[in-house]
Amino acid sequence: MAEAHQAVAFQFTVTPDGIDLHLCHEALRQVYLSGLHSWKKRFIRFKNGIMTGVYPGSPAGFMVVVVCYMTFTGQCFHCGVVVHTQMALKLDSLYCFPYVPTKSANHSCLWVTIIMIMRNVLKCLLSWHGWMQARHGSVSWSTHVWMILVKIFSGRKPMLYSFQNSLPRLPVPSIKDTCRRYLESVRPLMDDEQYERMKGLTEDFKKNLGPRLQWYLKLKSWWASNYVSDWWEEYIYLRGRAPIMVNSNYYAMDFLYVFPTSNQAARAGNTIHAIMLYRRKLDRAQIKPLMLLHTIPMCSAQYERMFNTSRVPGVDTDTIQHVNESKHIAVYHKGRFFKVWMFYDGRLLLPREIEQQMQRILADESEPLPGEERLAALTAGDRTPWAKARETYFSRGKNKQSLDAIEKAAFFVTLDDTEQGYDAKNPVKSLDRYAKSVLHGKCYDRWFDKSFNMIIFKNGTMGLNAEHSWADAPIIGHLWEHVLSMDPKLGYTEDDHCNGDPHPNLPGPQRLQWDIPAECQETIESSLTVARTLADDVDCHIFPFTEFGKGLIKKCRTSPDAFIQIALQLAHYRDKGKFCLTYEASMTRLFREGRTETVRSCTMEACAFQQHATHPREERLRLLKLAAEKHQNMYRLAMTGQGIDRHLFCLYVVSKYLGEDSPFLKEVLSEPWRLSTSQTPMQQLELFDLVRHPEYASSGGGFGPVADDGYGVSYIIVGENLINLHISSKYSSPETDSHRFGANIRQAMLDMLDLFQLNNKAK
Q1: What HEC string does 630-681 produce?
Q2: Contact (CB, 8 A) for 375 and 445
Q3: Integer angstrom CA distances of residue 589 from 289, 443, 473
Q4: Which of 273, 468, 497, 726 is catalytic?
Q5: pLDDT single digits (tens) 513-534
Q6: E strands within 437-528?
Q7: Is 468 among the catalytic positions?
Q8: pLDDT (tens digit per residue) in 102-153
Q9: pTM value?
Q10: Looking at the chain, which terminus has fewer C-beta neighbours within 10 angstroms, N or C?
């Protein structure tokens, strides 16, 4: 294997004449090029830091300020410079020495003042959310004026992090509003006696303990950038001791109908190269910030830990380890781990060169070392045994070096030895099997602690598995859209290779070495048993809904997301004969360091629509529209910081710090989400032409069930005529069946569309 080749910078031998040095010029050249690459990267980061720090100002703006200042003070720019220089040279006029610095300080102060004014005005403008009240396609004059002002104060050519200092802080809702909305959300799920009891607990909390907890939360909101995000990351994710596989990690799938190549190494070459190009743009902050309506910026903080990041297990709580730079990736194939450098000759490897490295790994027939094949099962099982094993067996020697190579890699790649993907002859089973493979695989062939795993299957299909604590799904979704769009552009040759030529002198991958004792192997097998029990219980069902898409839903003058959410409520009622507490993820990235908020989709209006199923069509249609309007209003509240669940969560954390016991908060936080839902948004529509090339439709992604007796539903609205749904539940629950629920969702959507009688209107 080529990994045995190691470039040595120098060798020496001791002779009677002294020490004889033999320099290796190629190794020294690579050292020079590597250092040059690192310094270029540091300079770019330094420059981008300055540009972001003064945004919406710019160096050009500074020159404008200088020219205007001198104009208003009666000097032209050229004359002013000459006068300053002449006066500075008069040594007998000591009072003239401060003249130039004083003028420069005036220019700088004026420039900084203008920047701060623009930044704070923009922050005030972005704190107004009246634009969300407008109906789709209509803009009021006040919103129009507001958008013009936002564009004026937003500056020109923003980079990824340009708006971070201009975003408003997440507001803390009032106790009164949160309690009122909570009672409203649980009313359809409780009988009169239960509701009166909960109402009493709520009133007691609102009058007594609530205001005290609220005071501490207000104090934190004034001090911290975001009063929710750090506690959310720590207590919801990092302190969890259960397996993160299935319970936390989520997945994304390949194109639904297109198979670019069946060459596994070639697909890996183009995919890995596209990811590294994205990382380079991310390092240089060249990715455009996401802007709603092309005007309203969203927080970009979560992008910072996409690469070079790993979750590190701890006995009581995990931590997130992020390194600024990593020049290699970690690759797993048939029980062996490899370290693959992504740079040579001071440049990023080309797709054909990466394919060359992947082919070397695929051709390697060496056997795994003892304990190596199933080592990654530690990341799939409970967190505490993994933390203890890591401290005991992986804190020194070759094990530590190999573990560092994985945890500090840019990302993790699995060259899977199974074939997955959509099979037209067996569409249901093929997609279900594909989803389960990307979600958990064999439980030991993914490194679930890495920020994300790229999985390349034997037949060239690919998938992605992402760890959840460092960021939410739209962040990794942005990368995934880039990768999918780059694949057709990079292309393949007629004989199914990446474009370009192999490198004749490229050093091969480095095989990672392990010394895993028998005691550690027992821990690995124990973790694998836990992980397999969890994975085998997951019932996945993925189906493309092709009867209609958002095109027809918009003709109904209804929000597509609201339409689907009400259909899910209708389907759940038909599936189980009852309503349940429903979680829909909404983002709060309109605020600095915002992550998510919950939309409680099971509303009084949605339940009323189902309960009047036998009423005349006009009445049911009226109730459907009311339910959709209610859902949209709740989504707006969640996006603008007026949701209830993150507020209640933070109040609960404060109560624990104070040692106060709250029956109200304890009961609220223990309520199970038996229907957990999320929409996967398409953020870069310009990358895909689904009108001319509908075959390049994304399959979307999904996640495991949240409750033992509940469903997890993820959906992606692709173009105008397709909605892909991902449903998960547990085989062990007698109440759930993912395929049955999928059939109920399909029928519910068809029944709801029939209420609008679009065919009659068209006639």
Answers
A1: HHHHHHHHHHCCCCCHHHHHHHHHHHHHHCCCCHHHHHHHHCCCCEEEEECC
A2: no
A3: 11, 33, 13
A4: 468
A5: 999 999 999 999 999 999 999 9
A6: 452-456, 462-466, 510-511
A7: yes
A8: 555 665 677 678 777 888 899 999 999 988 876 666 678 888 899 999 998 8
A9: 0.88
A10: C
